[in-house]
Amino acid sequence: MKTTKHFLTMLFFVSISLNGFSQEKTESPSIDYKAMEPKDWSIELDAVVSAGKTHKILLENDEVRVLEVTLKPGETGSLHHHRWPSVIDVLERGHFIDYDANGNVNIDTSKMPSDQKLPTTIWLDAQPPYYVKNLSGTLSIHLIRVEMKR
Fold this sequence. Notes:
four-stranded antiparallel beta sheet; 9 strands; mainly beta; single chain; five-stranded antiparallel beta sheet
């Protein structure tokens, strides 16, 4: 059971990187981000640039970038990526759907058991472009993301 909870938590965070959030989906250029080094990914799709409405910089230096990420109930995030590995502390969330750059569903948490205790913390590698739709009508998705630049 503990392994299942850990796996579901991992799936949640892989999809969340939630992701920046706005009202509209942005079309992704036809670039194979998975075949590229994250340092070479387009700056236009960086979370703070593409999803600045929902990704607020709390601290940035040569070592880290700390983001507060908030996606309101029912809100759909904009397409963006995270070029650095991260530690994420999820403070609040309801169900959500995580989509890849082509609109394919990566994860739909409404079809998964929801026994995750919050807050919870997880490690994620760099994330190629994706976006998230918050399915909750009452809960925001709220997290702190610490991106490791080195």
